[in-house]
Amino acid sequence: MADSYTVRAASIRGVEVLPVNVEVDLSGGIPGMTVVGMADTSIMEARSRIRCALRAAGFDVPRQQITVNLAPGDVRKVGAGFDLPIAAGILAASHQVPLDGFDDAVFVGELALDGRLTAVKGEVAYQLYARQHNLTLVEAADAPRTVLENVERRALSSIGELRKGLRNLSEPNGPTPEERHKVLFDFSDVVAQELAKRAMVIAAVGEHSLLMVGSPGSGKSMLAQRLPSILPKLEGRALEEALLIHSVAGEDLSDLARGERPLRCPHHTVSLAGLVGGGRPVRPGEISLAHQGVLFLDELAEFPTHALQTLRQPLEERCVRIVRAEGAYRFPARFMFLAASNPCPCGNYGDPDRPCTCAPARIERYQEKLGGPLADRIDMVLTIARPDAASIVKGEEGASSSELSETVMRAREFRSWRERKSDGEPRASFRELELSHDASDTLVALAQRMNLTGRSMSRLARIARTIADISEKKTVGAAHVLEAVAYRGTRR
Amino acid sequence: MQIKLDHVPSTHEKGAYGEKIAESYLLSRGYEILDKNWRCRFGEVDIVALDDDETVLVEVKMRVAKEPRRGPYPEEAVGYRKRERYRLMCRRYLAEHPDAQVRFDVVAILVYEGQRASLRHLISAFDGEEM
Fold this sequence. Notes:
The complex is a heterodimer of chains A (492) and B (131). Chain A is α/β, with parallel strands linked by helices. Chain A folds into three domains: 3-168, Ribosomal Protein S5, domain 2; 187-394, Rossmann fold; 424-492, Helicase, Ruva Protein, domain 3, CATH 1.10.8. Chain A has 18 helices and 18 strands. Helices cover 27% and strands 40% of the residues of chain B. In chain B, β4 and β5 (116-126) form a beta hairpin. Chain B has two helices and five strands; from the N terminus they run αβββαββ. The A-B interface holds A 28-34, 47-48, 51, 63-65 and B 54, 87, 90-91, 94, 99, 101-103, 124, 127-129, 131.
C-alpha cells in the first residue's frame, strides 16, 4: 500500500545550484510527516506550512505516515524553496494531481498558509540550472521577470493550480524590472576636472585600478559615481554572472537588467564578511556584487587594514574563495577597483590655499596606510585638486559621459582587435605591449631616475599601452609613456 | 440522553460521565465502539472507535462550568505530554493490531449546571509528529 514519488528541487550553495531529489513516501502507521536529509529549520517548518496550504487549496493531507527524504543526504539544505517540491511530491504520491511533465520539472517556491505561492531568493540561479538541464522551472507566479532567454517556466499562483496539470500553466508574469525614475549621473556634471576624466577613461579602457587623492569637496565621489556610465553595457555571459550573484544575494536586479554595470560603495565600517563574503549560509560580499562592475572604496585610509589586506587576493585572482569546515565556496570577483582618500586626516595637506592642521606624525601614519601592500596593487594614483570657484559658478561643462564612453568603446575595440592580431597571451610580457624604441628608452631612463621596481615598470608600460590604445596606435610611443608617468602620483 | 449531576462529582465520576456522553455521540455518528478504556503500560485510551476503515483513538475531556463560557476550553488540556502519551499508546496498539489505520480525535465536553452540555469533536486533532 506504500506510495512514493520523487520530485526535482534545487538548493543554493554559494552561487551554485545543488540539485536535490525530494522523495516522498506514504505508508501506514501513525499519521505525520517526517523530513530527513540534512534540512535546516526553515525546511522543518515547511511541514506546518504545507499541511495548512494543502488543506486551504482543498487537497487532502494523506492520513498516513509521510516520509520526505531530501537526497543527497550528506549536504545541508537551506531555504523555504522546498515547500513547493515537498507539497507537489505529496500530491503526486497520493494521486491528487495529474503527473504530466513532472519528470522534466524542477520545483521551487515557498507556500503561504492559504496555499498561495511566493518566490524565493536566487531566481536567476534556478533559471540557469533549469536551462542547463533542459528542465521546466515550476515556480511562483510573482517570480521576477529577468532577461534570461530560453528558460522554460511555469507559474503557479496557488498550489491548487497543480490540478490543471503542468502543461496548462502559463509563464510567470511577475514584476518586470522596474523602470525606476533614476537620477542619471553624467560626467558633464563634474566641472573643471578634465584631467581626472581622462584618467577615468584610461582606467575604464584598461580596467586599471585607480586611487584618487584629494581634499574634501574636490569631486572624488562625483567622479566615482559616474564611472559606470562610461563602461560598456553588460551583456551575454558577463550579464548572467552578475545577475546570478545579485539574485542569490537577494539584491535588486532592475539596474543590471538594463545593462548597467554595478557600482558598489561599501562604507568603511563594512564587516569582513560583508566585504568579501561569508555568513551563514555563505553569501557573496560586496566585492562579488561588484563583479563585472566597479568597487569604490571612499575614504580608503579609514578602512581597517585587515579589510584592505583581504582584497589583495581577489584583485589578482579575480575571484574569492571562502573556506569553511563543510567545504570551499568560490565567488567570482572581477571588478574595477576604484578608491578615494583625503591626503591627510584634515584633508588639506597639499592644498595651496588652506593650511593643513595635522601633526606631521599623523600625516605620516595616514599616508602609510595608503602606501601599504594594497596600494602596491593600485595601478594609477591621481591627485585631484579643488576646482577654482569661478569655474564652478560658471558651470563650465567638460566632456560628457556619452563622449567619454564613445572614446572608451573605440579604444576597447581597438584593443581587442590588436590582441586578436597578436593572438598570444595578452599582457604576458613587455614584448606583447609593442613598445617603440623611443618608448623603451624613455621607460628605461625613467626607471633609473625614479628607482622603479620591475612591478612598477610593467605597470607603467601597461598604462602606456592603454593610452596608446585610446589614440589607436599599434605601437606605444614615448609620449604615451610620459603620460602614464603622470598617473603614478606622489607615491614613493 | 439525560445526565444528571445532583451532587458535586468526583474526578472519576466526571470522567465516566464524559466518556458516556462521548460514546453515545460517536454511536450516533455511526462509529463503531471497539474498546473502552484500552490499557497498556503507557496509560489508557478513553475510547477506541472505528470510523469506516479508520481506527480512532479518542481522548475525552470533560469540564463542568457554572455558565456557558468562551474558554478555557476542555480540549486545551490535551497538552504536549498527553499527546506524546497517546503516540506511545498508539504504537502499542499498532503492535497488537498491525493493519489498523489510526487517527487521533479529541471529544471535548463542557457541562453547565448539570443540565446542558456542549460537545466538540476534533477529528484528527493531532498526529504522529509534533510540529
